[in-house]
Amino acid sequence: MATVPPGIRLLVSFDRDQWYRALTFILTFLLYTSFHLSRKPISIVKSELHKNCSSVNELATIASSSSGSGQPPSLPSLHTDMDCSWKPFDKRNYKQLLGAMDYSFLCAYAVGMYLSGIIGERLPIRLYLTVGMLTSGLFTCLFGLGYVYNIHSLGFYIFVQVANGLVQTTGWPSVVTCISNWFGKGRRGLIMGLWNSHTSVGNILGSLIAGYWVSSNWGMSFIVPGIIIAVMGVVCFFFLIEHPNDLKSMYAQSSSPGKSVPTKRWTGENGHTEMYMQYKDNKTQGVIEFSLCLLFAKLVSYTFLFWLPLYITKAAHLDAKKAGDLSTLFDVGGIVGGILAGVISDKLGKRATTCAVMLLLAAPTLYGFSMISEFGLGPTIGMLLVCGCLVNGPYSLITTAVSADLGTHKSLKGNARALSTVTAIIDGTGSVGAALGPLLAGLLSAGGWDRVFYMLMTADFLALLLLLRLVTKELTSTKPRPISAVELKEH
Length: 491
Fold this sequence. Notes:
By secondary structure, the chain is mainly alpha-helical. The protein has helices at 6-12, 16-39, 41-49, 53-67, 94-122, 125-148, 154-167, 171-182, 188-195, 198-213, 220-239, 244-255, 271-281, 287-316, 320-348, 351-369, 377-407, 418-444, 449-466, 468-476. The protein has a single domain (20-50, 91-241, 281-476), classed as Growth Hormone, Chain: A (Up-down Bundle), CATH 1.20.1250. It contains 20 helices and no strands. The longest helix has 31 residues, at 377-407.
């Protein structure tokens, strides 16, 4: 008899629950990757909506002179206007207009996040997330159709951004609740750090996809990501398992046909109202400090998300595709930063201290990054990686492991679905900063990019200050565990 292959022995060594846990990890990872994949194209396309027309006009003049004709040749584009920019972003205040588009999306996202947690707590997560992804795919495609149908109305693009911002709020509370339902406190920082790399993976894929079409047909830079997130919404509907209890109930009913099997409910004794009262009475948990810290940390992260490719285009004098490809290194650094923050905070048992150290190191890195135009390609790559690591590390830790710690606090009395609202509260506050950052960048960059980086360094410093009380408490505490981390109760 032949021996069983080692690969098969490895596969059968995992029990059923471990396979379902792995499925949930991978599926929620891919679902939120598609969310960020669909957000990234706008930052890549900005440099195409308003181009440096001098080089295009110069080429046209040379070609006209060489042909001996007084008529300038037609440009190789589907849309041949007097200039090479896309109306209405061809004006002198184009930075403000582009910033207004970012602000429209992010402001709607911030406002909608508070409502999303409340709604998500009361609806089946699988259906709620599916509808959100399908509608997000629709609005992402609509933005790209603006190119196909030659739409030059600022109101159209603002409307699409607002609508997309609202429906995308279904994503984060839903996936965090699912992953927290399946994974308890043990090594939560490491698991969440690995899992949260979906943010950077989505940004990288979004940059590459958008960059492929940005110079030839920027509408496809939105249509393709829109189709991807819609398809993943269908996958979510067919395969997402919200909680291990769902499987227990299914297997119990299949083993006892015709019998009604009672299952425990997740909702707290007084539901949503009780949760808010518990948070009101348990301020020492650090919800306020972490939420406000995330506001400034997310301000920095999202300013890079929406403006980095354009900044590289202007500062390093690269075309849109090369700038988009280079900007992905920031997200590669973000993957490392998220995992590193999770591992360190697990090892030390100090979430706030880990965030504070990374924020402290980020400030001088941001200053060095502001001089990117003076560096060669090698140092620029290094700065992108280090800056991405230090900027996204605290942001990743707070939105995942810290939110899960606070959302499973004993004061919630095992109300697992309340985690959706807790996550929305923290991320919603952070999203206020995410809305302000790109808007301020659009306004300040008109006076020079140095002003943008001074704003980012100030935000980084304020985020650090807001954690000082929690850092002091952690350093003086003899308990070897993260603040408010409590074992996730099994139901």
